[in-house]
Design brief:
- This protein has helices spanning about 15-25, 35-45, 65-70, 90-100, 110-160, 170-175, 200-205, 210-230, 255-280, 315-325, 335-340; strands at about 5-10, 30-35, 50-55, 80-85, 105, 185-200, 235-240, 240-245, 285-300, 305-310, 330-335, 345-350, 360-370.
- The protein has about 375 residues and is α/β, with parallel strands linked by helices.
- It folds into two domains: about 5-135, Response regulator (Rossmann fold, 3-Layer(aba) Sandwich), CATH 3.40.50; about 180-370, Alpha-Beta Plaits.
- The strands form two sheets. Strands 6, 7, 8, 9, 10, 11, 12 and 13 form an eight-stranded mixed beta sheet that branches. A five-stranded parallel beta sheet has the order 2-1-3-4-5, with helices on both faces.
- A hairpin with an 8-residue loop joins strand 12 (about 345-350) and strand 13.
């Protein structure tokens, strides 16, 4: 509601209009007028008054019809209407109120009654406008909240999708903008680690399915904990085999070192499990192969079933080295050794003739990290 409030007087009697203008003007209100019902309708829609004083008996369009039209207009804002009438018949007053009037005054208008009615109606108008403002504010808040909820749901869905492939830390970094969308095809140098349980095929042939699943659960739990701890990316696991790589999706400066340190920790952790398995009659051991090189990475699959894959010679090399590794042995490629030579204790192994590679491949067996 504006200050001072604007009051529209609709009356065909010029004397009555002047009296009301003088009395309301002395109260500090802004007063405008219309000489009949048609002018009153036009003025109400054009001037948007805060209150209307409306005479019932007027030519062309009477006060009751003015009330009906204004109340039926969905574009006309809430505006209190005080009916001013010289009629003494209560039925006419009731008709005016039923048509949409909020209050009434009888002519001649008493100044005190006029002032009181006007203040009362303007107070209602002010409260109504305040409520409307709060409703609009609430709508704005709701729209903002809905947008935030939608954004957060989308982020949660994206995090859930990414956590199928990456550690929670990396998934959060990707969603928060710390990394480009890794599901898009891209090329990067990575360090690849292959794990495989030696003796697993023979064990699975003679053991009960419950025993096989129990061993796999222990193996996966131990390996998974170390993968997450070293922020590796699990590409896939198939029974006793796993492929993990480093430096994707978020680049790290020490990918090869992380891969080797994780592998050493796995050799120790899985070695302890293997000792326990051996006491139960299961002869199992872990072989590990590590290689470094460029690969093409991204989402592989179809709608409803996506995996994250790395394609390149480096993955084949790591897999072949893993296949050559004995139980509790970690074989690394020449490139990994060259990068980590200052910190590694290794034993050279004879050049390996690996499937898919035309020339013999140099490899090194990792004993541990130098003191």
């Amino acid at each position: 509601m504006r200050t001072p409030p604007r009051i529209l007087i609709v009356d065909d009697n010029a004397t009555n209009v002047k009296i009301l203008q003088a009395r309301l003007g002395s109260e500090g209100y802004e007063v405008v007028s219309a000489a009949d019902g048609e002018e009153g309708l036009a003025a109400a829609r054009t001037l948007a008054p805060d209150l209307i004083l409306l005479d019932l008996m007027m030519p062309k369009v009477d006060g009751i019809e003015v009330c009906k039209r204004l109340r039926a207009d969905p574009g006309f804002p809430f505006t209190p209407i005080i009916i001013v009438t010289a009629m003494t018949d209560l039925k006419d007053v009731v008709a005016g109120l039923e048509a949409g009037g909020d209050e009434y005054l009888t002519k001649p208008v008493d100044h005190a009654a006029l002032a009181a009615r006007v203040r009362s109606m303007l107070r209602i108008k002010g409260l109504h406008d305040e409520v409307e403002g709060l409703v609009a504010q609430m709508k704005g808040w709701n729209a903002t909240l809905e947008h935030r909820v939608a954004t957060q749901v989308a982020e949660l869905e994206r995090v859930g999708r990414l956590r199928r492939f990456f550690s929670p830390q990396l998934a959060e970094a990707i969603v928060s903008g710390g990394a480009e969308d890794p599901l898009l095809s891209h090329r990067r140098e990575i360090t690849v680690v292959f794990l495989d349980l030696r003796g697993f095929t023979a064990f699975a042939e003679i053991a009960e399915p419950e025993e096989v699943m129990g061993v796999l659960r222990q193996y996966h739990a131990a390996a998974g904990e170390l993968i997450l701890a070293h922020e590796g990316t699990l590409e896939h696991f198939t029974g006793d085999g796993m492929m993990i790589f480093f430096n994707d999706p978020v680049p790290v400066p020490d990918a090869a070192e992380r891969a080797v340190r994780m592998s050493l920790a796995m050799r120790e952790r899985i070695g302890s499990l293997a000792d326990a398995w051996l006491r139960r009659g299961y002869s199992l051991g872990l072989g590990i192969g590590i290689a470094q090189g460029f690969a093409t990475l991204g989402a592989i699959g179809f709608e409803g079933r996506w995996d994250y894959g790395a394609i390149g010679t480096v993955t084949n090399l790591a897999a072949r080295l893993c296949g050559e590794a004995a139980s509790r042995q970690i074989l690394i490629s020449r490139k990994v050794h060259a990068q980590l030579e200052p910190i590694l204790e290794v034993d050279p192994v004879p050049a390996l003739n690996l499937k898919g590679f035309q020339r013999p491949v140099d490899a090194f067996s990792v004993r541990g990290i130098k003191p």
